[in-house]
Design a protein that fits this description.
This protein is an alpha/beta fold. It has 18 helices and 17 strands.
């Protein structure tokens, strides 16, 4: 799914009205109807109370339309409208419908204390993605009151005050939504970590904008949904053998951190590669043999840490390196010597670098030019900062990291909510799966195993990164259904990779 700018979305809506012969009024009703249906799914058969705050533009018009639908189906509502000297045409039309229906529309007074019923669901329809400048201080009292409430808050389009046009700093006044219903597309800013408090959980509301027109827009930002990945999985062949699905080598581990290798190994196996070999210090031999009996185990000559990478890279289809490795002098020297010895012209495997491999790369910038092209790096935020330097906001972070990927022809997976996959052509893909329960030790090791397995199965590197991130998040979501997110551990994610495959490639379950 493409992520478009507010200007592009307005143009797409205009083209949709022309191509589908619908008016802006009908398009607004379509949006409100889909939001209404989403709310109904959420509240079920209960009759609820809603407090709607509506602005003077079409975002407010969406809220007023929704108010009429909620009231018509038995919910009770309170409607507050910003006092303004000019309302949009559609907004005025919706005001008249509500007034003719006997609904009281109260003036929103920003300087007064607001009284909202306990349990009332707040609908934030004040300002949409068209807002081009920060809200002024007149809004401070009102927004602080809203954010201090325990009520659920649903923002339509974007949380009011959050700009879709530029980066937002922490001092900008924004509504802190519990849930944001993004109409047709997420805006870039609702996906960025710095805006997490404002965006809450997001849902994409499909209002049927014209797909042919949508295809004509160019962008470098994408949002990976299920329909984007269901065509990626390779077809299983009846006469396949273990060599068909590739040989993955997972390298890392040190005394006290062999668990990282166990997690990566299991995830690689569950993701479907034919053979997984692990390379660990001797202290990891018994652990890997007992916890991953299907895997082959090679060991370094040293007991507690890896001193040398004594294996032939070209014996494998993919190599994932760095999980639990450590970054003391011995590991750093071993990694440096290994990278310096690679014959990049005749190199067979694809590479993934994680954890301490990235930390060592950050300490040794001279190795960046030695990375095999289209390797995949999977840093968490602190590892990323060590690698590329500091940034002032998330948009700058993406720009610096994207430039790094282009310069060195690498792929980067920046882990977190809406994990971002940065490609060397400048395109950035944000992920739609995953949940806060996955913020647990070892989750990244599972992701590394998943992607390394896909690389071994000979998926193109970009597809392996995008599909691997999606599978990882989906497996975490499925695990969170069975266990409370607070109780989620990394091995739970691995145990649900099979269920994730069933949802992504259901047609392959019973094909034999």
């Amino acid at each position: 799914m493409k992520i478009l700018s507010p200007t592009e979305i307005s143009e797409l809506e205009f083209q949709t009205m022309n191509r589908q012969n619908v008016s802006s009024r009908e398009l607004m009703e379509r949006a409100a109807r889909v939001i209404f249906q989403k709310i109904q799914q959420w509240v079920g058969e209960c009759s609820c109370h809603f407090t709607l705050f509506c602005g003077p533009g079409n975002n407010g018009g969406d809220g007023l339309t929704l108010a009429w639908m909620l009231q018509s189906t038995g919910h009770t509502i309170d409607v507050f409208l910003v006092d303004h000297d000019r309302y949009s045409e559609e907004n005025q039309y919706r005001q008249n419908i509500l007034k003719n229906n006997g609904t009281c529309i109260d003036q929103l007074k920003l300087d007064e204390k607001i009284n909202i019923r306990n349990g009332s669901i707040i609908i934030d329809a004040l300002f949409g993605q068209g807002l081009k400048r920060p809200l002024n201080e007149n809004w401070s009292n009102f927004i602080q009151q809203i954010n201090n409430l325990s009520n659920s808050i649903i923002s339509i389009d974007v949380p009011s005050g959050l700009s879709a046009h530029h980066s937002n700093n922490l001092k900008v006044l924004t509504v802190h939504a519990t849930h944001t219903f993004c109409i047709s597309f997420p805006t870039l800013n609702v996906l960025l970590p710095e805006n997490a408090k404002s965006s809450g959980n997001i849902s994409i509301i499909d209002i049927g904008l014209d797909k042919l027109a949508w295809e004509t827009f160019e962008t470098t930002f994408y949002y990976t949904c299920r329909e984007n990945v269901t065509m990626i999985p390779q077809v299983l062949n009846k006469f396949s053998h273990k060599g068909t699905f590739g040989h993955a080598l997972v390298v890392g581990g040190s005394y006290g951190s062999i668990g990282a290798m166990t997690l990566s190994c299991r995830a690689a196996q569950r993701t479907g590669c034919g053979i997984v070999t692990t390379y660990v210090p001797k202290c990891g031999y018994d652990i890997l043999q007992s916890t991953c009996p299907e895997a082959l185990v090679q060991t370094d000559n040293s007991m507690n840490v890896i001193h040398h990478f004594k294996f032939n890279p070209n014996d494998y289809d993919a190599i994932g390196l760095g999980m639990g490795l450590g970054q003391q002098a011995n590991q750093t020297d071993a990694f440096f010597n290994f990278m310096s010895s690679l014959d990049r012209e005749n190199l067979r495997p694809k590479f993934l670098f994680d954890a301490d491999a990235i930390n060592i790369l950050a300490k040794l910038p001279e190795l960046h030019d030695l990375l095999p092209p289209l390797s995949i790096l999977t840093p968490h935020p602190k590892e990323l900062k060590r690698l590329i330097g500091d940034w002032s906001n998330d948009l700058e972070k993406l720009k610096i990291a994207s430039n790094w990927c282009t310069k060195y022809r690498q792929i980067m997976v920046i882990k977190g909510a809406h994990t971002a996959v940065l490609l060397p052509d400048g395109n950035i893909h944000f992920n739609s799966t995953g949940n806060p329960g996955m913020a647990t030790a070892g989750s990244g090791d599972v992701l590394s195993g998943i992607i390394t397995s896909l690389l071994a199965q000979r998926y193109p590197s970009a597809e392996a990164a995008i599909l691997g991130v999606f599978i990882h998040g989906l497996a975490g979501d499925l695990a969170a259904i069975q266990s409370h997110p607070r109780s989620l551990i990394a091995s739970d994610i691995s145990e649900h990779i099979s269920e994730a495959w069933k949802q992504i490639a259901p047609h392959q379950q019973n094909m034999f």
